[in-house]
């Protein structure tokens, strides 16, 4: 289904129209059979649209206007920290000395880039309270897997091969158990208590000699700070396990608290979230991993080190888990994060936390009269509502999310965490103005009133988008991934 006023590019095509011209061939023409195996050579011309350059430009410009991003609208996606990406970051990432170098150049010819990476590592060490950092992992889940592989390597180096269990809270990010599984480990769930925090008694029950690690974020996915974290660390460490910090929610504690001071042994960061690298649509990301001293020998190699005045890649790491990504991470995202940290400074990063927490609590209190509030307490950078009240009126959380599209907003995260019925998870971030927050809150209030007075308008939403209400089940199980000619 598409807007009939904007035909698909295939439908715009007419025989004989040309949108490009190639120069005359200035090299000898070759027989394709000399280059490609026979089965890979087309016998017929591809069926491509024949359109003019102007038509093709208008087509892709129109498509670009259908995208939603932070530069076009509010994006309150819970646990994803979709905050503004300062354009100075983009400018610096495009400097010739960064954008035009090649990863296979000799170390002596890219000392400036290596200095930036080394310096970024030092900043992240200070921010997290860790002892060493690797920038190799390509994204958050990749960082999770890397961190768990480090923990596994640590235990096995100590002859502790029976530590195969990773404890995850029932509110954990879905990537946590997935990463543990890919790392060859099993997961055990620890319950949350009535306050939305890890139940210490249940933690004591599940921890044991087979515990490799406890994996959680703080504040947790409900936006609540795990106030018993020091006791949790003591329980896990006492059993010989390690603490892993999922850095997805670091935006809530920057320059206020450090995972290393809470007792965590490993932390991954999302530079494409907390440190303003653009993300969404598949990347690129950056998921550095920081570790305490006893895990340093197992870090992926090479490790960037400084010898005198020279920056070098150190491959002499006999206990390393090996390289986890070609070259040394997503360099462009690292440049953006470094620019952000240097331009903000310690006071600026502290303000990030303060405004993120202020914005979340302001929105939560304004919306509490209209939606159920599962945990009526001070939140951090994000908060969770429930659409149970609206569900009784025949309006589901999914309907509320669809209705928000009519007002030009990207919906918040819904139905996650799984331990909250009809969950709506909202993260405003620190970069949004009070006017934007108020506009979104007013819209949510209007939708709550519509659920009471005119539920059909919510149930049938969206009404103004290019694509209307989809069959969610069929779309997931039988997606149409290519153009089909009628």
Protein architecture, described:
- The chain is of the alpha/beta class.
- It folds into three domains: 57 residues, no CATH class; 257 residues, 3-Layer(aba) Sandwich (Aspartate Aminotransferase, domain 2); 126 residues, Aspartate Aminotransferase, domain 1.
- The chain contains 16 helices and twelve strands.
- The strands form three sheets. Strands 1-7-6-5-4-2-3 form a seven-stranded mixed beta sheet, sandwiched between helices.
- β2, α7 and β3 form a beta-alpha-beta unit.
- α5 packs parallel to α11 and α6 crosses α7.
- It is globular and about 75 Å long.
- The protein starts with 8 loop residues before the first helix and ends in a 9-residue tail after the last helix.
Highlighted features:
486 residues, alpha/beta, Aspartate Aminotransferase, domain 2, Aspartate Aminotransferase, domain 1, 16 helices, globular
Q: Output mean pLDDT.
A: 93
Counting DSSP E segments of at least 2 residues, the number of strands comes to 12
The second-level CATH architecture of the largest domain is: 3-Layer(aba) Sandwich
State the low-pLDDT regions, or none: none
Q: What is the CATH C-level name of the largest domain?
A: Alpha Beta
Strand order of the largest sheet: 1-7-6-5-4-2-3
Shape: globular
CATH topology of the largest domain: Aspartate Aminotransferase, domain 2
Radius of gyration: 26 Å
Approximate strand percentage: 5-15%
* Main β-sheet description: 7 strands, mixed
Number of helices: 16
What is the helix/strand order?
HHHHHEHEHEHEHEHEEEEHEHHEEHHH
Distance between the termini: 13 Å
Number of domains: 3
Identify the CATH homologous superfamily of the largest domain: Type I PLP-dependent aspartate aminotransferase-like (Major domain)
Structural class comes to: alpha/beta
| Percent helix range | 25-40%
């Amino acid at each position: 289904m598409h807007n009939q006023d904007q035909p698909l590019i295939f439908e715009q095509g007419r025989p004989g129209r040309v949108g490009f011209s190639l120069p005359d061939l200035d090299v000898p023409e070759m027989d394709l059979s000399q280059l490609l195996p026979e089965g890979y050579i087309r016998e017929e011309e591809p069926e491509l649209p024949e359109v003019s350059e102007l038509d093709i430009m208008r087509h892709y410009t129109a498509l670009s206007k259908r995208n939603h991003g932070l530069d076009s609208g509010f994006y309150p996606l819970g646990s994803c920290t979709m905050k503004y990406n300062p354009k100075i970051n983009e400018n610096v990432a495009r400097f010739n000395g960064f954008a035009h170098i090649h990863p296979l150049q000799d170390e002596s010819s890219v000392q400036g880039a290596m200095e930036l990476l080394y310096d970024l590592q030092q900043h992240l060490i200070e921010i997290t309270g860790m002892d060493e950092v690797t920038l190799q992992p390509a994204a958050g889940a990749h960082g999770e897997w890397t961190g768990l592989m480090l923990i596994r390597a640590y235990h096995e180096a100590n002859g502790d091969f029976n530590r195969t269990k990773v404890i995850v809270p029932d509110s954990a990010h879905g990537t946590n158990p997935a990463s543990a599984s890919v790392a060859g480990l099993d997961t055990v769930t620890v319950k949350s208590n009535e306050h939305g925090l890890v139940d210490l008694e249940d933690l004591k029950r599940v921890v044991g000699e087979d515990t490799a690690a406890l994996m959680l974020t703080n504040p947790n996915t409900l936006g609540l700070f795990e106030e018993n974290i020091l006791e949790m660390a003591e329980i896990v460490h006492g059993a010989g396990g390690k603490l892993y910090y999922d850095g997805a929610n670091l935006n809530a504690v920057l320059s206020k608290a450090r995972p290393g001071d809470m007792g965590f042994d490993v932390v991954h960061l999302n530079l494409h979230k907390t440190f303003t690298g653009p993300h969404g649509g598949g990347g690129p990301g950056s998921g550095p991993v920081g570790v305490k001293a006893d895990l340093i020998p197992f870090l992926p190699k090479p490790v960037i080190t400084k010898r005198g005045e020279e920056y070098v890649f150190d491959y002499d790491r006999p206990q390393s888990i090996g390289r986890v990504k070609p070259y040394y991470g997503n360099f462009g995202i690292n440049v953006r994060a470094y620019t952000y940290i240097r331009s903000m400074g310690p006071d600026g990063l502290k303000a990030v936390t303060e405004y993120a927490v202020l914005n979340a609590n302001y929105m939560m209190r304004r919306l509490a009269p209209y939606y159920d509030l599962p945990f009526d307490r001070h939140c951090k950078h994000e908060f969770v509502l429930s659409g149970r009240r609206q569900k009784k009126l025949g309006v589901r959380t999914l309907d509320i999310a669809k209705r928000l599209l009519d007002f030009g907003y990207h919906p918040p995260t819904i139905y996650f965490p799984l331990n909250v019925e009809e969950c709506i998870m909202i993260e405003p971030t620190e970069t949004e103005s009070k006017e934007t927050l108020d506009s979104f809150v007013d819209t949510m209030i209007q939708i709550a009133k519509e659920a009471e007075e005119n539920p059909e308008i919510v149930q049938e939403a969206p009404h103004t988008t290019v694509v209307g209400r989809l069959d969610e089940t069929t779309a997931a199980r039988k997606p149409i991934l290519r153009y089909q000619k009628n």
